[in-house]
Amino acid sequence: YFQARAIGGELRRLLTATIAGGVTVLLAVLIAILVGRRIAIPITRLAAAADQLRDLEFGAVDRVPPSRLRELNEAAVAFNNMLVGLRWFEAYVPKRLIERLIRRTRDGQLESEERQVTVMFTDIADFTPLSEALPAADVATLLNRHFEMLTGCVEAEGGTVDKFIGDGMMAFWGAPDAQPDHASRAARAALAIAAAVHADNTARAGTGQPVIRVRIGLHSGNAVVGNIGSAGRLNYTLVGDTVNIGSRLEQLGKQLADAGSDCSILVSGATAAALEGGFRTRRSGEFNLRGREETVEVFLLE
Questions:
Q1: Per-residue model confidence as pLDDT tens digits over 151-167
Q2: In angstroms, rounded to a whole number, what is the distance separating the alpha carbons of residues 222 and 292?
Q3: Bridge partners (DSSP) listed for residue 47
Q4: Is the peptide bond before 65 cis (omega within 30 degrees of 0)?
Q5: Section 91-96 average pLDDT
Q6: For residue 173, what are the contacts with CB-CB under 8 A and spacing of at least 6?
Q7: CA distance 273 to 268
Q8: Looking only at Cα atoms, what is the longest distance across the chain?
Q9: d(CA 175, CA 236)
Q10: Where are the alpha helices (DSSP H) in the chain?
Q11: Of 151, 173, 177, nearest to 164 (Cα)?
Q12: End-to-end distance of the chain based on CA atoms, in angstroms?
């Protein structure tokens, strides 16, 4: 045994050291938690933003805020620069098509194949004199509004906008996803475009703006579908006689369109025969299309 006064000082120093050590450990833990949170929050934000990119909704992704930690700030700057590039990418590449291709293949390889499709061509009648009478900015605004309207009608029926050609558009159904009713989808989209153009012309006439007339050609048949182009610039598109006939039908609308009609829709006999339920067509006759020896039966979709 020991006398208390002999060891009391040592015990007090030991107790003081223990308390000081415990406080130090507690402060170290709190500091570690705070530092960890400061590191984890920007990482979590970066991970959440990257996860949003999976849905290809680039416009809905927020920019990652800067960080005081150099490495995390560099990662945020790199991500934000990438986001700017992807938003430009979204403006030039058909997003719905990319989504479908991603679902079909994960390695970026897609073999060209022959498919049954329906192709659509559209064009604005007498666009050259119309554009000459308008300032360049007004022409661009008119076309942007027009193509946005057409794109909405095409995508509502599961179609793919292939490209814009001047004041015209090419779209198709039946690829990359199989669509047995591709002709009916294309016909519904064409009628929706006709209704949208009529409504738009009514509004334009009410404000004194010139109205526009649209020609549409639809044809169904076999086409080669796949990635066409060079190694650095591919386009998922259609090639073949089916595409040519669709384009020629749109041009034939110059002589078959009803006078005063906002939109004329010409369909080939192949498309008319494939339509399912409720469509009204009027036979226009058989015509020799430019570049073809055989005649093509043509109908007006009403």
A1: 999 999 999 888 898 89
A2: 16
A3: none
A4: no
A5: 69
A6: 117, 118, 120, 157, 158, 159, 160, 179, 182, 183, 185, 186
A7: 9
A8: 124
A9: 10
A10: 4-52, 70-92, 95-104, 127-132, 136-156, 182-206, 241-256, 269-274
A11: 151
A12: 113
Query: Residue 234 corresponds to which tokens in the numbers above?
Result: 């591919």
Task: Give the C-alpha separation, 216 to 225, whole Å.
Answer: 22
Cα distance between residue 52 and residue 225, in whole Å: 30
Strands 214-230 and 113-124: antiparallel
Asked if 134 contacts 204 with a C-beta cutoff of 8 angstroms, the reply is no
Cα(245)–Cα(140) distance, integer angstroms = 29
Would you say 266 and 299 are in contact if contact means Cβ atoms under 8 Å apart?
A: yes
> At which residue do the structure tokens 């015990």 appear?
11
Q: What is the pLDDT of residue 169?
A: 93
Phi, psi of 18 (to 5 degrees): -65, -45
Residue 151 has a pLDDT of 92
What values do phi and psi take at 73, rounded to 5? Answer: -65, -40
Q: Which of 211, 239, 245 minimizes the C-alpha distance to 225?
A: 239
Is the distance from CB of 185 to CB of 276 less than 8 angstroms? no
User: Which residue, 255, 256, 245, 241, is CA-closest to 299?
Assistant: 256
Tokens found for residue 268: 């080939």
Where does residue 294 fall: left (phi above 0), alpha (psi -120 to 50 degrees), or beta otherwise?
A: beta
Q: Which amino acid is at 105?
A: T
Note the pLDDT of residue 113: 83
pLDDT grade for 14, boundaries at 50, 70 and 90: confident
Mean pLDDT, the chain, rounded, equals: 84
Could you give the CA distance from residue 39 to residue 52 in angstroms, rounded to a whole number?
21
